Amino acid sequence: MPKKVALITGVTGQDGAYLSEFLLNKGYEVHGIKRRASQFNTDRIDHLYQDPHEEDVNFILHYGDLTDSTNLTRIIKQVQPDEIYNLAAMSHVHVSFEMAEYTADTDGMGALRILEAVRLLGLTNKTRVYQASTSELYGKVQEVPQTETTPFYPRSPYAVAKMYAYWITVNYREAYNLFACNGILFNHESPIRGETFVTRKITRATSKIALGLQEKIYLGNLDAKRDWGHAKDYVRVMWMILQADEAEDWVIATGKTTSVRDFVKMCFSHIGISLEFKGNGVSEKGYVKACDNNNYNLEIGKEVVCVDEKYYRPTEVDLLIGDATKAKEKLGWEPKYDLKNLVDDMMSSDLKLMKKEEYLKAGGYTIKNYFE
Ligand code: NDP
Ligand code: GDR
């Protein structure tokens, strides 16, 4: 059997890294598109790197960008993929309000550029396309839990761009019989989640506060509720979606929702510290209520969480909770991680990282050394 060939856009991101590992383990030849950057941006996939001078190389990187259709067309022509996973995106909802046009170009038009390249290259019968759609499409709450039939009401430039990508994927499926699917994935996190998404921001800060490297964390809306799963569970289902008999759209979620405030409490509780919150809105604060861990010397009553309204969004998505019944019944997908396991995984990893930082700081190694 010849090896299956996959092309992943956004290979340097959280999902791109886990998906690459997953597909390589399945025996795929994996091609990834990475952006040129002034510094190495491949931390998440460095462990998968294979020297191109060796024989039988199965992990191959190409420079590219979703805003450049000639580049995308050339890579797809060269790679002749059986499966394309379009994961690349300007994926930060808050930042999309600052970079609305770029977000539309990358997240919306980028999907069209991929689909159109597949069509123009005559690959519609060969290549299957996965589009990284999102629970942000639901936006303003219409119904809960959200399913494949819940109406969309996007609440950010990011979500509006992703809505175009969603429908153009459906349209290419219907118009050209292309095997193109949307995975409507709810939030999924991991130890390699980007540091400015709220879960990772919290696990990093909790670890730093516990080790005395940081005083407190500033957050935005503590009332927002999200359905958080583990990225490892979610990349597995991306692959399952493209192995299905029919091209369809799928909701992927855990079915449980948790507020940002409770997520903070869970992270502190992982290290034996309980918090209490007082006040509301911008004046709400989180204090240490009890500390049952002798390794961490946090005094009772210490203020560790504050609200800064600069993290509020012009329009917010208040409540996401997904119903993945269709994927469970038709694809046989089941998540292996629950929220507690996710918190444990992220906290253990960030505690290790921050201990390394503490060690380097104690030894006098800081970024300032470069400029002295
Ligand atoms: P990340 O932000 O971690 O990764 C995004 C990837 O896209 C990075 O590799 C980034 O490159 C790349 N990228 C950004 N802009 C461009 C561009 N113009 N051209 C080419 N590549 C680009 O996102 P995730 O891994 O978390 O998410 C993967 C996809 O799934 C995204 O499309 C996201 O919108 C979507 N999604 C994510 C969910 C989640 O909870 N994680 C939930 C639902 C959908 P670089 O490393 O150089 O920045
Ligand atoms: P989200 O993730 O917007 O759901 O998009 P994020 O972690 O950024 O925000 C989740 C919720 O937390 C609230 N929040 C904060 N968010 C951030 N980033 N920083 C803060 O300090 C903070 N304080 C409170 C937010 O207001 C929000 O309600 C993610 C991305 O991965 C998208 O690409 C993906 O499509 C969706 O998940 C599903």
Automatic annotation (TrEMBL):
GO annotation (BP), single: 'de novo' GDP-L-fucose biosynthetic process
Reactions mediated catalytically: GDP-alpha-D-mannose = GDP-4-dehydro-alpha-D-rhamnose + H2O
CDD domains in UniProt: GDP_MD_SDR_e (cd05260)
Enzyme class per UniProt: lyase
Cofactor: NADP(+)
Function: Catalyzes the conversion of GDP-D-mannose to GDP-4-dehydro-6-deoxy-D-mannose.
UniProt name for this protein: GDP-mannose 4,6-dehydratase
Highest classification ranks of the organism: Bacteria, Pseudomonadati, Bacteroidota, Flavobacteriia, Flavobacteriales
